[in-house]
Amino acid sequence: MSTEKQSFMDKVLEKVDVIAGPMTRFGQIPFVRAIVNGMVAALPVTMVGSIFLVVYLFCSDGGLTQHALIPFLKPWAADLALVNSLSMGIMAIYIIIAFGAEYAEIKGFNKTTGAVGAFFAFMLLNYNSVGQLAKTGASAFESTYWGGAGLITAMIAGAIAINIIDFCYKKNIVIKLPDSVPPAISDSFSAIIPYFFITIVCWGIRTLAGINIPSAVGEILMPLIGNADNVFVYSFQQFMSALLWICGLHGDNITGAVTNVFLNQWLAENNAAFMAHTAVKDLPYVWTPNLCRLSQWVSSCWPILVYMFMSSKKLPHLKPLGLICLPPAVFCIIEPIMFGLPVVMNGFLLIPFILTHTLTAALTYWLTKIGFVGKMYMSLPWATPSPILGYLSAGGSIGGFVVVFINFAIGMVIFYPFWKAYEKAEVAKLNTEE
């Protein structure tokens, strides 16, 4: 038995190891993996829609300025906005298809069967009748729950569909055709019975029982969800994300599996409110998916990168590493720094990393709440450089641009003493090796 006294840092890292296992297992739950992968797969559609929305803002009166900045595109402004409506406006459709395919692959059966089955379940859970267009009398599906408001329904529909199909396949409750039949036809026939059970369950819930899941879930969760959009819950989420990252886990993906379904809905509602001519300061939600991009990495990884260059004379290996990390870091791609320095499991940088994430998150939320930073209503690519993202995602917010550099300065101050201690330890280690 070792009698060597454990250092404080050894004790901290020991505690980190305790929580690393359960968090890793949580991220590997098939349902959670499928949700995350499905949202990532559907992200390009909403990004493209946001690009068209940006163009719309430049070519429409009242977009970024009172008069269109690109007047020759003004006649097509409404058509450009349509692309946004057909992307962010119906994001639940894209997510349920991608989610069904990803979940089916994890379960081990045909992705197309899973995607179609999940989408079918989603439609069954949304409708018990077909609406009538008032002017023409034509039949139409209402798209109220095809956007952010339908993401919870999409998750429930995917869970029901994929698990029913998986159960039927494992118990051989399927129509089997001879091996000589082409696989595409065979897969179609084998899905008939599982799809029948999906219909019974989902049609029974929505039509026979009369349960409107989006409305019911909203009534249950809205007291909690409504209260979740506050500085305390947001700061705690950023704290947990930083803690997981320092353990070597993807903190954004793990906490995002819980929060993204609500954040995407809130962003969609902000978007809809803006398109209905609500002022940016009066949009309903502060916490949106990209709000963290104005604080988390600019207050941690950006200062670390600066200090890497500043310490390169004493620690020569940091300069080439910094040059490699610099271009990705501009676009908030931080894995090279996190795993290259490394920051992960680094006892010297653990405290400032978590501290900067939490404090700058609280500050950014408060500045957005009081109107210094514009509330976000556009889904820009997550890799957009933070100052540009802060400015554009709120339709031209100077505060969204400035707050990035405020958070960067805070990070420089907080990291300084910890970095000097790290530098001293690394120099001593280098001298010992020489």
- List the helices and strands in order: HHHHHEEHHHHHHHHHHHH
Largest sheet: 2 strands, antiparallel
- Termini distance? 32 Å
Helical fraction equals 55-70%
Average predicted confidence as pLDDT: 82
**Category from helices, strands and their pairing:** mainly alpha
Description:
- The protein has 17 helices and 2 strands.
- It has helices at 8-27, 30-58, 77-85, 91-107, 111-126, 151-170, 183-190, 192-208, 213-228, 231-246, 251-275, 301-310, 318-330, 335-340, 347-369, 386-392, 398-433; strands at 131-132, 139-140.
- The mean pLDDT is 82.
- The chain is an all-alpha fold and 434 residues long.
- A two-stranded antiparallel sheet has the order 1-2.
Question: What's this entry about, in short?
Answer:
By secondary structure, this protein is mainly α. A hairpin with a 6-residue loop joins strand 1 (131-132) and strand 2.
Question: Which secondary structure elements does this structure contain, and how are they paired or packed?
Answer:
Elements: H1 8-27, H2 30-58, H3 77-85, H4 91-107, H5 111-126, E1 131-132, E2 139-140, H6 151-170, H7 183-190, H8 192-208, H9 213-228, H10 231-246, H11 251-275, H12 301-310, H13 318-330, H14 335-340, H15 347-369, H16 386-392, H17 398-433
Antiparallel strand pairs: 1-2
Helix pairs in contact: 2-3, 2-4, 4-5, 4-6, 5-6, 5-8, 6-8, 10-11, 10-15, 12-13, 12-17, 15-17, 16-17
Characteristic terms for this protein:
434 residues, mainly alpha, two-stranded antiparallel sheet, globular
